[in-house]
Amino acid sequence: MKILIAPDSFKGSLRTGKVAEAISKGILSKNPEAIIEKVPLADGGEGTLEAILNSNSEDLQIISGKYSGPLSVQTEAFFLFHQKEKTAFIEMAQTAGLELLKPEERNPLIASTKGVGQQIKQSIEIGAKKIILFVGGSATNDAGIGMGAELGWTFRDEFEELVEPFAKNLQKIKYINPPKVNLLEGIEVKIATDVTNPFYGEKGAAKVFGKQKGAFSNEIELLDDGLKNFAEIVEIEFGFDLQNIPGSGAAGGLAGGGIVFLNGKIVSGTELIFNYCNLEEKIKNADWVISGEGKIDSQTFEGKLVSAVLNLCKKHNKKVILVAGKADLNLSELKNEDIVHLYQLTENHTPEYAIQNAGELLEVIGEKIAKLF
């Protein structure tokens, strides 16, 4: 019996590798002969590099160091480097992620992407000719100007005075000046995201994601106005229409900023991660597939990572077991004949208890799953 465990993280509780490990441990305690392959997945946010490293550990170097964190305090982080292919894999959540901050610390007005710029700069210094930048899980809303500043870009107001590269100052920017030396010359940059939000407006970065990053209503309006101003200056000076590029609003506008500062191209994060993890081949070779995430609801099936896993399972006629921290749908509502069981940690526990004891509860679910085989 070949079982593939390929979950997303349970955000706020367990990283993707720990989720897969706990389920596996539970299954093996009841069915020690089961052949289990664990493929931790991620959606471009925290845990993405862990997922890639899990499937490609022999080919990748871990480059670690201290970088500017979301509130400009140094933080330990790393990126991955493929020496042979001269490719760097950078996860912006490592230096500008929401999970790096306590809820009371969240403040997108001053949260910065400086650390992302520092990692990009270092990757170029060690020889990267291609950069894959994953932009999920951000604490920021600065349109990437913190990143840009680290790469030599400057921003000036109507009096041509320097503007500090923070989201609260986006509205003040009237001139965007490229660096004297373009460090990105000849370097291919892919900005990996599955978010399709525009740069600003009702479905833009600030109005959709600002609240979860700690912004109040009046601050969200300020941030949105700043993004709109930035986009207008970009169009005048560089000819990029950020508002009409799907996904430019990802990571507080970092994706849009990446188009300007990195000459980057937005690509599907899930597709990239699946390719690097060789997921389709592993699904093809499995008898059963177990997947899941922290919360399963109607949004799960609108292009999120678990939905993409299910599409591959359907393609290869594989039966699926889903595991969630909390499920706002029952099995009949899923209307997917490939899903044979849906487990949730909150079935007999409060959300608070489930978050704090997710590892143990996932082991128990693993034991239940073992009885199905």
Please name the CATH topology of the largest domain: Glycerate kinase, domain 2
Overall pLDDT metric: 94
User: Can you say what the CATH homologous superfamily of the largest domain is?
Assistant: Glycerate kinase, domain 2
Largest sheet, order of strands side by side?
3-4-5-6-9-10
Bin the strand percentage. 15-25%
- Over all CA atoms, what is the radius of gyration? 21 Å
Work out the count of structural domains.
2
- What is the tally of beta strands? 13
Shape: globular
Q: Structural class, please?
A: alpha/beta
H and E string: EHEHEEEHHEHEEEHHHEHHEHEHEHH
The CATH class assignment of the largest domain is Alpha Beta
Count the DSSP helices: 14
> What is the first-to-last residue Cα distance?
8 Å
Poorly predicted runs are none
Largest sheet: 6 strands, mixed
Helical proportion? Answer: 25-40%
CATH architecture of the largest domain: Alpha-Beta Complex
Topology, pairings included?
Layout: E1 2-5, H1 16-30, E2 35-38, H2 48-56, E3 61-68, E4 74-82, E5 87-91, H3 93-96, H4 114-125, E6 130-134, H5 145-150, E7 154-156, E8 175-177, E9 188-192, H6 205-209, H7 217-238, H8 250-261, E10 265-267, H9 269-276, H10 279-284, E11 288-296, H11 305-315, E12 319-327, H12 331-334, E13 339-344, H13 351-356, H14 358-370
Parallel strand pairs: 1-2, 1-11, 5-6, 6-9, 9-10, 11-12, 12-13
Antiparallel strand pairs: 3-4, 4-5, 7-8
Key features?
373 residues; alpha/beta; Rossmann fold; five-stranded parallel β-sheet; 14 helices; 20% strand; globular
